[in-house]
Design goal:
The chain is α/β, with parallel strands linked by helices. It is built from nine helices and 14 strands.
Length: about 325
């Protein structure tokens, strides 16, 4: 039906898509996304979307390339089916860490992915906690970058006495994010100066700020191998922190990350459902998952009704 809001999803995070639909108050759109025998992706839209306001929920998480291709084919299918507007809802934007040239003769992968999404047919993009805010400028279409901070801050306030908290940035690049958390919690701020010898390996950590006898909360946009978080937790405990927690929006948790978290000084790792947890991660007692479904649902409703969503950026 013309102008009707329709929410579809690929195979990357169907549970989040269903939760979003429940908040919006609609059923998930009917679409088939499966594989041919040779591994190619087959996409079929199983209902009329002509003139509709379509939202496609797909995180480009592991397997990154498969999920990215699913997203691109879904966008192309909706464009060819004459949808009025197509919004790519990408809770986790893969390739975001490759946002600039760090060596000669390397690609800027985040920009290429942005071009692919636009060319495939997206009218606008809705995402959560981009690794680098400037990626919004890689698109020539509107991009709304939501923040999971309100969800995480609510959890912290409900669980902890904010007078005892010190918010910690695990590196210099995350200071702005940690400062925003500290401001909302009216807490102190500390920064970890780390010296990285090679990728995914931290050799030395120095803490700038006072963490003694405080509950230290490490804040980052994602947790990948967990090497940095685990080393930071150890350093904080060695400097007198009473307890160490970590809050990360995107639980990439690759390699031996889960074992590292379980064996670490971290009391808790708070993440969101932008990426679905593997069974072994879901079984880890230290990992707490919060949902951003209501945040995305509210953004979808406001986008559909052409209302401001700036209040969601708190």
């Amino acid at each position: 039906m013309k102008d009707e809001v329709k929410v579809f999803a690929g195979n990357s995070n169907p549970a989040l898509a269903d939760a979003v639909c429940a908040y919006v108050g609609i059923d998930r759109g009917a679409a088939t996304v499966r594989r041919f025998s040779d591994g190619e992706v087959l996409v079929e839209i199983d209902e009329n979307v002509r003139g509709g306001d379509v939202f496609v929920i797909q995180s480009t998480c592991t397997p990154v390339n498969d999920n990215l291709i699913e997203l691109l084919l879904l966008l192309d299918a909706f464009r060819r089916a004459s949808a009025k507007r197509i919004t790519a809802v990408i809770p986790y934007y893969g390739y975001a860490r490759q946002d600039r040239k760090v060596a000669p003769r390397v690609p800027i992968s985040a920009k290429l992915v942005a071009d692919l999404i636009t060319t495939a047919g997206a009218s606008r993009v809705l995402t959560v906690d981009l690794h680098a805010g400037q990626i919004q400028g890689f698109f020539n279409i509107p991009v709304d970058n939501l923040f999971a901070a309100p969800v995480i801050l609510k959890h912290i306030r409900e669980q902890l006495n904010t007078d005892e908290i010190c918010v910690v940035s695990p590196d210099a690049g995350g200071v702005e994010r940690a400062r925003a958390f500290a401001k909302h919690l009216e807490a102190s701020l500390a920064i970890i100066d780390k010296r990285r010898m090679r990728a995914n390996e931290v050799a030395e950590m120095n803490i700038v700020g006072e963490v003694r006898d405080r509950i230290a909360i490490l804040v980052d946009d994602m947790v990948d191998t967990a090497g940095t978080l685990v080393a930071a937790a150890t350093a904080l405990m060695d400097n007198g922190a009473r307890e160490v927690l970590a809050c990360c929006t995107h639980p990439v948790l690759s390699g031996a990350a889960i074992e590292r978290v379980q064996d670490s000084a971290l009391a808790e790792l708070v993440v969101t459902d932008t990426i679905p947890l593997r069974p072994e991660a879901a079984a880890c007692p230290k990992i707490k998952v919060l949902s951003v479904a209501h945040l995305l649902a509210e953004a979808i409703k406001r986008t559909h009704y052409e209302q401001s969503i700036s209040s969601l950026f708190v």
